[in-house]
Design brief:
This protein has a single domain, classed as Tetracycline Repressor, domain 2, CATH 1.10.357.10. Helix 1 crosses helix 4, helix 2 packs across helix 3 and helix 4 crosses helix 5. Helix content is about 70%, strand content about 0%. The chain is mostly helical.
């Protein structure tokens, strides 16, 4: 007979909804604490479920983190596909320029700090057999999408990914905290996020969200 601590959430939910609930909480926890700092207990508390429930669903912390990485990559590519589908001809000759749409889609994901930061934590664990393999495969999946689906040149992919990693870094170190007190921080954010700096400041509590 199961104890109270081993039971699923009291609210009746479909299995896929319960899994998404835990993965969303795990994404936030791993994003803030990193792989080694996070625990299945912390994830369980964030999700409002028991720790045995999380373990029963995913098995190990490594398996949970791999599921978080896979979900993050799926959401990233999903946002890119939606943006790409919405890009119309941008030049008189009818050629498309998906760069702006994909860049805007990536910037919108800044609202989910855990998603982008959990990806970064995965990238720095390249020496781990399982996590490193997952991170490399995911990164190459994004590269192939940009090259084959979006039609970027190799140099354009390099520039796009470099800018994306810069945005991740700025979010990770909470550069927006110094926006109003350090001219260098202001200049850096205004240059990196010319149309999204205020959005990032609102995320960090430096500005009131616009209605």
């Amino acid at each position: 007979m199961s104890s109270v601590n081993e039971q699923a959430p009291a609210t009746r939910m479909k299995a896929e909804d319960r899994r998404e609930l835990v993965l969303a909480a795990a994404t936030a926890v791993f994003g803030e604490r990193g792989y080694f700092g996070a625990t299945t207990d912390a994830v369980a508390k964030a999700a409002g479920v028991s720790q045995p429930y999380v373990v029963r669903m995913f098995g190990t912390k490594e398996a949970l983190f791999l599921a978080v990485l896979t979900r993050a990559l799926d959401r990233l590519l999903g946002a890119f596909r939606v943006a790409l589908a919405g890009d119309g001809p941008a030049h008189p000759d009818g050629s498309a320029a998906p760069h702006r749409g994909l860049g805007a889609a990536y910037a919108e994901l800044l609202a989910d700090r855990g998603l982008l930061l959990s990806l970064m934590h995965g990238f720095i664990l390249g020496s781990d057999t399982e996590i490193g393999a997952c991170a490399r495969a995911g990164f190459l999946q994004v590269y192939r999408f940009l090259r084959e689906d979006a039609g970027f040149s190799a140099d354009e992919v390099h520039e796009f990914l470099a800018e994306g990693m810069l945005l991740n870094t700025l979010v990770g170190i909470r550069m927006a905290v110094d926006y109003d007190t350090d001219p260098a921080a202001r200049e850096l954010l205004d240059t990196a996020l010319p149309t999204k700096a205020e959005f990032l400041l609102a995320l960090e509590g430096q500005r009131k969200p616009q209605a």
